[in-house]
Design goal:
mainly alpha; 63% helix
Length: 184
């Protein structure tokens, strides 16, 4: 794939709406739904601001690199909506996603695969910052969520999937702010 084609494909991330939010948000009005690119920026921003540059147990630059590319396949195949896509994806989607990642980012495919599989701390942190962005965005959308039970279930499911103590602690620190600011 030449660079022009790759750029053209990846620009789709700017307009690809996050499918999970479309299903969760009330249909009686039309709040602006974030794009995949905006989600990527949010996850990247959280890690950039919250990870220690000098940590020895993980590589901040590698975590940021993984977050930057983690949803590139969605530029071609679209976003997948499910209650928690970070835990479950149909096999056909996973195969297509892997194929597209090999095409779009062959030099980082193995690192991306390790992140998807949770094979190392850098990948686990990237996955957790991906989930942390979901949690922050959930609170920002709180007034637009269809039903309180859906909000509670989503928050419980996403926060329960955080696998690193670093990001679990970070969420415990951030959550009170978002609860207070975005109460229903």
């Amino acid at each position: 794939m030449n660079i022009a084609e790759k750029i053209d494909r990846l620009y789709n991330l700017k307009t690809q709406r996050r499918a999970g939010w479309i299903n969760l948000i009330r249909q009686d009005h039309d709040p602006r739904i974030e794009s995949v690119a905006e989600h990527t920026y949010g996850a990247y921003l959280l890690a950039f601001l919250c990870l220690d540059e000098n940590a020895v147990e993980y590589d901040k630059a590698k975590v940021l690199q993984l977050l930057f590319i983690h949803d590139w396949a969605e530029a071609v195949i679209g976003d997948f909506a499910h209650d928690d896509k970070t835990v479950w994806k149909p096999a056909a989607y996973q195969e297509q996603e892997a194929h597209e990642m090999r095409q779009l980012c062959p030099e980082l495919y193995d690192s991306w695969r390790a992140m998807e599989n949770g094979d190392n701390l850098n990948g686990l942190l990237a996955k957790d910052f991906d989930r942390l962005d979901l949690l922050v965005q959930l609170y920002r959308y709180r007034k637009d969520i269809k039903a309180p039970a859906e909000f509670v279930n989503f928050e419980s499911n996403a926060s329960g999937k955080l696998r690193t103590e670093l990001v679990r602690d970070l969420w415990r620190q951030l959550k009170p702010y978002f609860q207070a600011k975005y109460h229903k």
